[in-house]
Specification:
heterodimer, A: mainly beta, B: four-stranded antiparallel β-sheet, 0% helix
Chain lengths: 111, 115
Amino acid sequence: LAKTTQPISMDSYEGQEVNITCSHNNIATNDYITWYQQFPSQGPRFIIQGYKTKVTNEVASLFIPADRKSSTLSLPRVSLSDTAVYYCLVGGNTGGFKTIFGAGTRLFVKA
Amino acid sequence: GAVVSQHPSWVICKSGTSVKIECRSLDFQATTMFWYRQFPKQSLMLMATSNEGSKATYEQGVEKDKFLINHASLTLSTLTVTSAHPEDSSFYICSVRGGTGTEAFFGQGTRLTVV
């Protein structure tokens, strides 16, 4: 399973765009990149998933360069309620579908 | 996506007793479920993979006799923490993988406190 590296923490202000970058240098050909959000005392929640280029949904965008060795989660116009831990995970059909979490990025949004 | 429900949401038990946590996949038949534990300010640690109708697969360092997993149906997996001790106090979370995608869906978690 590919190892991921993210910043430990980030601060932002309400209304700003937040970009969280994740490094995954040894990503395998069949690996997908998935981001999750976790609030305190809750299970993680799926945000977005991609394989290459750009993916956008109603809450976020995911940018993946051609070499796929990194990815950037973009949260447009964050609010206080976006304060959470964000996890970048890389994996696919290997490892029995196991989802292995890295340390995550603790995002703190200030008023 | 799949809806996953855990019960109870929180539990307090005495040292030496056993506690059972249920994980239900409400709208998806899950042949495989996963159990995690999470200590404060830390990431989720995968404990075991629960396989319907067969034995669970435990991650290295996780005691299978301590954390008993039963996956008797396609919608229910249970984790029993046996002879619980204060160091077993943690947040336990289960998950299932989606049917067509590779994303995982998680339960709301169970806060276990052993006193």
